[in-house]
Amino acid sequence: MISLRFFTLLFLIIGVASCDDARVFDEYKTVSDSWEKDEKISFVLPELDSLQRYNLFINVRNTNDYKFSNLFLISKMEFPNGKTITDTLEYEMAKPNGEWLGIGFTDLKESKLWYKENVVFSEKGMYKVILQHAMRKNGETFGINSLEGITDIGFRIEFAENP
C-alpha cells in the first residue's frame, strides 16, 4: 500500500513539474564529438502570432570536457523578407571557482541563456535562427577548430509575460 501511494505521488509530482505553459517552441540539435568551427546549427521557427510578444533563449548542454568558463556564439536570425540580423554573443558558463552555472545532477549541465526578449514576429513566413561557435584562446587570432564538451544546442521560444 505504501509503495502504491509513493508511486502515485511521484507521478503526480512529475506531471505537475512537466507542465510548461510558457513554452511555444523548444528544439535541440545534437553536436557530434566536437562542435566544429564551421558547423552551423539552424532552427526553423514555427509560424507565430504576430500580435504576441516572445522571449527567445539558447540552450546549451555541456559536460566536464568543456574547458572554458564562457561561450562565444555568432547568431543569425533570417526574416521572411530576406533581412538578416547577426549578433556576437558571450555567455558565462562557470563561476570563477570552476563550478558550472547550468543545472543537472550528473556531469551533463544545461544552461538556458537569454537571447532576445519581447520579440514580435510581425512578418508572415519562415524565420530561421542559425548558431555557430566563435571560441578562441586568449591572445590568439584564429578560432578553435573543434570545441569539445558541448553535446547539444537548443533554441526555445516562450510567451513573454504581459506587463
Automatic annotation (TrEMBL):
Pfam families: GldH_lipo (PF14109). The keyword Isomerase does not apply. Residues 1-19 form the signal peptide. Keywords: Lipoprotein, Signal. PROSITE patterns: PROKAR_LIPOPROTEIN. NCBIfam families: GldH_lipo (TIGR03511). This is Gliding motility lipoprotein GldH. It comes from Aquimarina rubra.
